[in-house]
User: What shape does this take?
Amino acid sequence: MGAPWAGAACGGGALSSGGRARGVSALPAPCARDRAGGPGHRVRAGVSPRPPARRRPGLWRPAPPPGAPAPRMDVAPGIPTLGTQRATRRPPTPEGAGPRASARRWELFSVPARPDPVGGPVIRLVLTDLDSTLIWREDHVVSARALAAIRRAQRAGVRVVPCTGRHFRDLPWMFDGDAAACSTAVTSNGQLVYLDGELVERVPLPREALCGLAALLAGEPAAGLVVEIGEDKTIVARDLEFVRAHPETFWGVSASVPEVPAEPCYKANVRLAGSFARCEELAAELDRACPDLDFLLPMPGTPHIDVMPRGVGKDHGGDFLMERLGLVPEEVCCFGDADNDLALLRHYPNSVAVANAVPSVLATARWRIGPACEDSVARALEDIAEATTAGRMPSFMA
Assistant: This one.
């Protein structure tokens, strides 16, 4: 790597060349790190965040005074309310606060009870990646079978939640205009969480860390930091001539700024006009140099790096919804194919990889199904809907 990188750091150590991007190795190494404001974990591909099937302790506030109404969770029309006398966190996280910040507040609420299935837990929440997992078509729209399977699962009382690095605004057209199929979603790799169309959780990227990252990338002539503020994709510390010189890499970028904007940012990525092998090396170098950020490769073969706050991944958004709905990890099923799904797949016991997944995902997931192009996730959703209605686990988990 050239001299401009020497000694540069994004709040951490200097960059050095070589290495592999995080998430390439299929062998996890134990590691833990506290998040701000509460018990957390370092969510890094190649690192085991914490044991699966974790149950939350029963932390309850005193019951409200006699005659006072108990808080109640809002649910979408037609979607059964789940759980009995369980804990939920107050949304949303204050602007600028870290995940599960300061006060992990708990409330006691009453919801209609559901009968316990005879054979144990059933699936009540599905967290699924989109591109190359649920969605396989070139136009990036779900198939008719997948959309029908989602609706069938919803009728059976199962929440099917897109869990993606994309923005919430992209989802309606990807679900063929069916807003009800994607109104609850984990987006921006877990930084933004929506429940029935309402934003209930947000974790912004730390601006100081992004500024340090932009300074580091000044020494990588073919790379650029792209941030999304509102609906605009903006490149930092590069001009639009650079963007026009690499149209296939910097698609959608319409503006340039000399430094990271002051507005809260919930989506950023590093794009590289180069090989995927160099992108893997760059991700590893940035990971070592930027202790407040995580770097993941969401699209195998594409030189594109997602940037997230350290320790915040899709599992953060999944946990937020699980707790809000009064569920436990055994009632959650997740599907994925790429490195940005690893934290999710390690976190829940019922993890599923599609056959076209990268090796690290195939090695991590507990279950495997067919490739995305055969509508394998849609088939699994049909199985889940039938099994949950019958009070059992789906047959593909047998």
About this structure: The chain has two domains: 19-49+76-203+312-398, 205-311. Residues 125 and 159 are 5 Å apart (CA to CA). Confidence is low (pLDDT under 50) at residues 1-9, 16-66, 68-117. The chain has nine helices and 18 strands.
